[in-house]
Amino acid sequence: MSRTTTVDTVPAGEVSVAGASRPDPFIKRGTPQFMRVTLALFSAGLATFALLYCVQPILPVLSNEFGVSPASSSISLSISTAMLAVGLLFTGPLSDAIGRKPVMVTALLLAACCSLLSTMMTSWHGILIMRALIGLSLSGVAAVGMTYLSEEIHPSFVAFSMGLYISGNSIGGMSGRLLTGVFTDFFGWRVALAAISGFALAAAIMFWRILPSRAISARPRCDRKRC
């Protein structure tokens, strides 16, 4: 008795066509999506560090306004950076669960709103609470931004896009200090912080509108290697 084994074969031409039709999962430089991603992350980095460091040049003003020592006034900056570090432990896993874009958009909006509320505080403890919430909120951008880029941008262009993102961080920290100091001299510290908050809110809205929506959910690492 003989057994016949049937082997299904696919013509080589069909295999190549199927492979060629598979879409590239990564965003490449020179495409409209790449421009949108880099602009969105640049503005997010700009707003993040502008909000974080905007109080640094007005520490003496806050000291006089609320009757605290110069050393105590520096807590308004220290508590933000400390809470940002704490938030990094949670926002990364949270973005794995609900997606990168929702976490970053929510983080920017909350930070901008808390910064705006800080201009209405009449007590030093109120300022510190708002600054703590700002730092905690901003961890959602700091922890997720680079992960988003590494997942969405083609590996050949990740370094370039991350460089733009980090440059936004640096420019944001510098401009936040500079603009707050200038505005405080002319209009007072509350108006200065309100202006920075308004800029951050505008950046958050632009970030929400232009960031490609396909990046809402994180791509598993194993899938990325097979892509």
TrEMBL record:
Membrane spanning stretches: 37-59, 71-91, 103-122, 128-149, 156-175, 187-211
Protein origin, superkingdom: Bacteria
Any one GO molecular function term: transmembrane transporter activity
Pfam families named among the record's database cross-references: MFS_1
Gene Ontology CC terms, in alphabetical order: plasma membrane
Keywords in alphabetical order: Cell membrane, Membrane, Transmembrane, Transmembrane helix, Transport
SUPFAM superfamilies: MFS general substrate transporter
Location relative to the cell: Cell membrane
Membrane topology type: Multi-pass membrane protein
Major facilitator superfamily (MFS) profile domain: residues covered: 33-227
Major site of localization recorded for this protein: membrane
Protein family per UniProt: Belongs to the major facilitator superfamily.
PANTHER family the UniProt entry points to: BLL2771 PROTEIN (PTHR43271), INNER MEMBRANE TRANSPORT PROTEIN YNFM (PTHR43271:SF1)
Record-given protein name: Major facilitator superfamily permease
Species of the source: Klebsiella pneumoniae
